[in-house]
Amino acid sequence: MASVNDYQAKSVSELKEELLNLRKEQFNLRMQKGMGQATKPHLFTEVRRSIARLKMVMADKKQAGAK
Questions:
Q1: Fewest Cβ atoms nearer than 10 Å: which of 6, 12, 40, 53?
Q2: CATH number of the domain within which 42 lies
Q3: For residues 8 and 60, what is the distance between their CA atoms, to the nearest angstrom?
């Protein structure tokens, strides 16, 4: 998974695209879990935390743009 520094280097449009990809991955993991096929349960936590990191960086960029 990407770090905060990786996300800070990207543009806002790239961050939105990455967020969409992470949300799709999260959905796929939930579907696998629902069907009893979840083979790597640690990925749930990693994806959730990556989404949180990404949202934090997007909020920082938005706040910096407003100043």
A1: 40
A2: 1.10.287
A3: 9
pLDDT tens sequence across 9-58: 999 999 999 999 999 999 999 999 999 987 888 999 999 999 999 999 99
Neighbours of 25 (CB within 10 A): 15
Q: CB neighbours of 57 closer than 8 A, spacing ≥ 6?
A: 4, 7, 8, 15
pLDDT: which is higher, 51 or 64: 51
Domain of 17? Answer: 13-66
Does any domain span residue 54?
A: yes
